[in-house]
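note to self: dont lose this again. the chain is below, predicted strucutre after it. 847 aa total, dont forget to put it in the shared folder this time
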Amino acid sequence: MTALLCIKTERVSFTWYAPQSLSGPQDANGHVRIAALRPGLTLLDGTQRAGVPDEAALDLAQEAGPALFEETTYQLALVGRDGAAVELRHRDPLLLGNIHYEHGQVSAHGSLNFRSQVGLSRFTILVDGRPELDLEVEVFPSKIDYQADYTAMLGEVHALAAGLALEHLRATYHLASTSGERRSSRLEWIALLRHVLGDLEPAMRQIDRHPIRGLRREHRMVRAEALRRSDARLRQAVRAGRGQGPAIATKNGLSVRRRLPELRPTPTLDTPEHRWLALQLQRVRQELAHIALEERRRQSASRRPGARGQTSARDAQALAELEQLEKRVTGLERLECMAAAEGAPPSGFASLQLQGAPGYKEAYRNLTILRQGLSIRGGPVELSVKDVHLLYEYWCFLALLRLVSGVLGVPIPADKLLEVRGDGLRMRLERGRTQSVPFALPGGRNLEVTYNPTFLEADALLPQQPDFVLTFSDPHWPTVRLVLDAKYRVETDPDFVDRFGAPSPPPDAINVLHRYRDAILESRDGEDVSSAEGTGRSKRTVVEGAALYPLTADQAERFDETRLWGSLKRLGIGALPFLPGSTGWVHQWLREVLLRCGWTIADAVTPHAAEVRRAQWQRSSEEPVLVGVLRGGEEATHLEWIERERRYYTRLTPSQPRQLRAKAVAFYMPGQATDGDAPGAVTHWAEVEEIEVLPRKRIRTPWPARRSQDELQVHYRLGPVQPLPRLISNRSVDGSVQRFSTNRWTSRLALLRATNVTELLLESAAEWALYEAIRAAGLELELMAVPPRPSGNSAIRGRAWFRVGRCLIRYIGGYRFEVTVGESSVRTLTLNEVVEELIRRNGSSET
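---
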């Protein structure tokens, strides 16, 4: 077996093996992060990551590694050194169910399969019961593009149905950031609580160690000679002779008791700030208790005699985690400053101390964040993600609703779409339960789009349960149904491709559509089924059926020439590609079938060169390109050496993981190295064929090293060096020239599209889409570079500001942008919303 990953330390050896189907060289396209949990831990020789040079594999700061895939079985081996006991842990107790320990836990081995779960997954290795290291890997979908299609699919599901694609306990999770755009669902709230408790606990203990006390005035018995001021109660006590001790005479001859009541300020922990914090902790604990109670009831109701397996193990883990969270919150409530707080804070309470004092502001922020929602696009909050085949099914249903709404020109009834039933710790579209979204059509007709319906007519032997059904009801016509099944499986065998003309769903996915058409029957209400017309039998209602499956836009460019499309047109049974960015064929089919009765037939939208080009550019935006500088004063000689040797090297920088993922290298030639007065430009480029990490002394060059001979260099072996079809000039529209003295990063998309070096900052497809939209609208635009982000910040953020009038715009990932207008607060808008806002502001200024 081929080792994908091998980790060796002074105390343990861990190996992750590839299956036989993946034997051979592997690329470093994945994510592997090793975090030391034992002080002084170092990686020893023999540590390997497939596709990563040995020197880089020993670096704990390096996060490159082999890609791991869903629905793939891997073999693991864990061995303790010098007889030490070892243990492998994971949040999902079932993921490691096939790992077996031997020789008193000195070694462990077995198989592991993530099934359909994708995203980040974290393992912990313990030696003699003590944490040794954390291993975080990324699991990729095997049938769809992870960075583009999967991320877009997850984002659309999250945007249309909050909490639909999230679960409390799964083997993998995505990183999400908090967002104030909407309130959390219960599942998201649990995930948020798990995250914020790590920050809330130290903040509350900081408050308990250094509380800010208030003053509370209380009546105390004070010696008569120590009285400071008089009040009504003191005067009443003197007149009535009340107090403590014997009577004494004052200087003016007045007889009073030895001790009299006086109102004096006393320090107290019972402040409005502490009351507010205590109230929020109480609500958190009550909510956790309520969720735990509902989960126990759900498990009790669903338990079967003798039932065993995955569900019970995950349920037990979920309850244990809920109880642990509740204990941690209860511990915070018992802190002295919280226990002293009695009652609720005043109505309309606001406090600068709560929002600004050390400890208080952190506690306030973390308790407030629990009221906020989540936006999945990277960040510090760990979330589980549903099985990808279920996610694909959910996305298909929601995307289908959106397309139907667009074709019919009627809005989606949101109240029906969001009727998602909560099931304990899960919120999902449940198998076995029907959810329908109705659309009112002209002429008294109705369309109902149904998820997971069940059909069982009296004449049918077995129930039929397709994924989605479009049902047309007309008072003058029988019921008509269109059946769709979401099939995540794709057959790419050459025989299938030759037979159908493209990758296709498995044969049983097509055959089941024929069964639906024959077996889904209905007797119309009011019809005389015993008449000669009715013949006493139910009627078929399915007129067409299609399997929806994941096929990209470029793969489906000529889908109308496949047998799958031809069969759908000719026989009413076939298949359609359906993915984010590849919805054109489903849209065309819907336009044809939905507008057949009484509607004006509109031209169908079919895939064309623009859609294919967009898909290609989307993918090219994910390929990093290094724009390298040449040796000062020897640029032409250096470039000739690169062209001849087909090599280029640059200093290894661990904070730049793209150095080990670069797909191409381009070269900048300064103005003084060219003839005439032309400015500098990016003039040549080459594909990267191989990446090595070598000490400088192993790289032979005609010139001596300027730095240490042992300094590690990233050494690129290149394909043929070619001149760019169009030079990328170092002269902006305004005529300015930039300093270009160090290497820069861009994407293949920017290298293909840019005409000047400023445009190289636009790495993503979304930024180029906005750039073109602004210029197409005739708006004045200025691009400005954003200062480099801190090392280790992996958030997807653009490196350019778009300045249009008073608006500053920056890409933040997922076709979303931050927009700042003057001194106003930052808003998050989609691409279309940004363009509309700019056009509106431009029109207002002209008016």
